[in-house]
Amino acid sequence: MNKLVPNKKIYAIVICYNAAPVLAELYKRIDKELYDKIYFFDDNSPDESADIAKQFDWIVIKNEKNLGHGGNFKKALKTTFEDGADYAVEIHADNQYSPNEIVKAKQKMIDNYDLIIGSRFQNNNPFLKDGMPFLRYITNKLMSSMTNYLCGIKLTEFHTGCKIFSKNLCKKIPYQKNSDNYLFSFEIIFQVAFFNLKYGEIRISSSYEGYKTSCNYLNGFIYLLGNFKTIVFFLLAKLNFYKYKIFK
Predict the structure, then answer these.
(1) Which residues partner with 13 through β-bridges?
(2) Could you say which of 3.90.550.10, 3.30.420.40, 3.40.50.300, 3.30.470.20 is the CATH number of the domain covering 10-247?
(3) How does pLDDT run across 4-43, given as a tens digit for each residue?
(4) I need a surface site. Which of 5, 85, 99, 164 has the fewest CB within 10 A?
(5) How distant, in Å, are the alpha carbons of 42, 60, 198, 203, 215 from that of 117?
(6) Is-contact 183 230, C-beta < 8 A?
(7) Domain definitions of the chain by residue range
């Protein structure tokens, strides 16, 4: 039983691809009392990530083939909620976000929020405070502001890898139809807004030093193009002109 919200089962889902050098550090950082179970989903990493994870008291699942970030995430959500979780907390294996930021979401979980987003921009400048690379900072800031303005989704950040998902969310939205790449995490925010589920933010910090597994510039550009596509399809669905598969 977790010590944060004892009447709800909270599972951690560690999303991993090639993070062997930092897994021991991640294991030390996680406050085990915040979680009922810790799942580790390795996306067929060619390094020793899965073997290292098996040394810890985690439930380790290694994909037989690489599913992509989104594909691995779909599998993680499906597995944890079928195992009885009320909330699943996204943890990236490279230590960019603290695995214990969940404590700030206690009241929102008590209030049955469906999606809780960790924002680096909520009353904060991550470029000055956390050392976020300037290009990433300005792109994130501009895209989030534009998305907020065009779509009316009141968030300070849309491009974060720190999220908490409810069981109700995964029952109500067709997340299995989302992209298998990094766009998955962007799309799911729009689905929550489209299907009128309850969402909110908590303020988090992040680290950009040491070993990191963020997407490269090519994948980042593909992700950016996918952002515009998702925004267009969201607006078309809201206007009842056309419903793309993720909004059906």
Answers:
(1) 39, 90
(2) 3.90.550.10
(3) 999 999 999 999 999 999 999 999 999 999 999 999 999 9
(4) 5
(5) 23, 25, 11, 9, 20
(6) yes
(7) 10-247
Neighbours of 209 (CB within 10 A): 9
The tens digit of pLDDT for each residue in 125-179 reads: 766 676 677 877 788 888 888 898 899 999 999 988 899 999 999 999 999 999 9
- Is 90 exceeded by the pLDDT of residue 211? no
What pLDDT digit, counting tens, does each position of 75-130 carry?
999 999 999 999 999 998 888 888 999 999 999 999 999 999 999 887 777 666 76
The three-state secondary structure class of 226 is helix
**Residue type present at position 65:** K
Helix and strand tally (H, E) in the chain? 9, 7
The helix/strand/coil state of 200 is strand
The H-or-E segment that residue 40 falls in is strand 37-42
Instruction: Give the ranges where the chain is alpha helix by DSSP (H).
Output: 23-29, 49-53, 68-82, 106-110, 126-129, 134-151, 167-172, 183-194, 217-238
Which residue's entry shows tokens 């996204």?
A: 90
CB–CB of 243/134 below 8 Å? no
Q: What distance in Å separates the CA atoms of residue 113 and residue 105, rounded to the nearest whole number? A: 9
CA distances to 42, 63, 121, 162 from 20, in Å: 10, 16, 29, 20
- DSSP classification of residue 105: G
